[in-house]
Structures are given as structure tokens and as C-alpha cells.
Amino acid sequence: MSEGIGCGRIHRGATMTSINRTLAEYSNTFVYMSMFVLALTLFVFAYAFSQSRDKNAETSRRVGNIAMSLTWLSTLLLLVGVVLRGLSAGRAPWGNMYEYSITGTLLALVVFLIYSLKRDIRWLGLFVIIPALLSLGLAITVLYSESAQLIPALKSYWLIIHVFAAIVSGGLFTLGASVSGLQIVASHVEKRIAEGENPGRLGFIAKRIPDSNTLDLFAYRIHAFVFPLWTFTVVAGAIWARSAWGRYWGWDPKETWAFITWVGYAAYMHARITIGWKGNKAATIALIAFATFIFNYFLVNIFFSGLHSYAGLD
Hints:
Shape: flat
Number of domains: 2
Largest sheet: none
Distance between the termini: 21 Å
Oligomer: single chain
Low-confidence stretches: 1-17
Helix content: over 70%
Number of helices: 9
Mean pLDDT: 86
């Protein structure tokens, strides 16, 4: 269980009377409502982002405030959807890939909103809403499964500890990847300008985000926070595996890729702290590490068989 992503295959073969289908349907409704508001938020953030800092700064600020308010609303709707999903089954609402996805999206939005209370990060909103919408879209179209009970091995308090830690980590990894990607864009444009070249189309984006050094530091702070949490996730999964299967580690596909993801982010932290790598080099490592996380979540969950085949998909 050393990775937690997608844990919780539903128990096929019997209808569980303890499932409250009404609450499950209400949960779906709130998730759809959240997606609708997020889609509207995306267009508002896009309009705010399109306004030049110099000519339409005030307009951009006002529209950005509207987008932030819509983000709060969509997050609240998604929170209700996640809570109702858990209540419908009488358990923690992260028992399969669908539930993991909606909860992970919720936490990514919550982290963004909490951080926005301390700093003006409206410029990041567009790059948070896009992956949030994609995640929810995949959840309801590809990953959806009915609310159901867990298999006996997963009925443990470690489900709450291990999988919740993995969900929080996933949300922070997504934010970190977004900032790292923007850092590379800003660095590329700054280099072209320094060399007297036309920044090209990427200059449109670079004019509306902080400079590369600021983004580099922001990304580092996110990853420095989440790396210990991911380490705990892997360790907690190993402890749970010992309890469920009688061994701490068995190189199951998900365990293996969880470790690969850990190595990727460990390499990032090592490069930043020990070698002193910053900027594009560090950002590239972070993006590669994030790619291993995404590979583990989607491809390993769906196409690889093993003890962690708990996606909940038919």
C-alpha cells in the first residue's frame, strides 16, 4: 500500500444496503455544479490574465477578484460533494480513483485559496483551474464508480492516514509543477530579452507572471513542504502493507512507482540544497518527478495489475 493513490476497489458482486444512494446522487450533483462554476471561473481568469498590467491593471485586478470569488464558490460546492460522497458510504471519501480525484482537486484548490489570503497570486489562478477542471472531467467521465463499501483489507485507519497524505501531496505536486512550468517560461523570455531578441508569444505570458527568480523560490517552497509529506506517505503505506499483507515492501507496481516519484523529488531537493541548482535545471527535475507521479496515478492504476488494483473501474 506504499502509495495510496487510487486505493479502495469497490466490493463487486453484492449490493451493500449501507450505501445511501440519495446522498451519493446529491454528491454527484454538487460535483457537477462545482465543475460548472469552475468552467465559468476559467473564462473569468483568462480574461483577467489577458489584460495588460500597464494599460488595464485596474480592470485585471477587479476581474481577478471576481474569479477568486468564483473559485471560493466552486471549492465550497466541491467540498459538499466530497463530504456527501463519504457520508453515502459511511467512510472516508477516497476509496477509489474517482474519489481520490475529486478530493485531490478539492485540496489543491484549498491550498491555492489559503495561500491567496497571504499573497496576491491571482496570476496563478488560470494555471490552477485548468488542471482542476481536467481532473474533475476525467473523474466523472473515465474514473467514475458508484459509491460502495471497501474490501476488508482496506477497512483500516491507515486508509485515512496514508491515502489522505497522498491526496494532499498530489495537490501540492500539481501546484508545484504549475509554478515550475511558469518559471521555465519566464526564464526563457528573460533570456531572449537579455540577448536583444523578440520574446515571441511566450512574452505574453511572462508579462503577466512574476519574474523567474520569484517563481523559482515559490516552487522550491512548495516542494520543500510536500517532500517530507510524501516521504511520510510512502512510509505509512509500508506500515499499512505490513499490517495487511505481512510485509513492508514487495515491489508491487504502485509501490515501485511511488518510490520512483520519491527519488525524483529527492533528486530535486538534493540539487537545490546540496548542488545549488536553481532555475531551469531544478524546474526540469521537478517536472520529471511530477510526470512519474501522474504515470503512477493514471497508467499504473488502470493498466498494471497488482495488490494495489483498487481503481474501482470495470
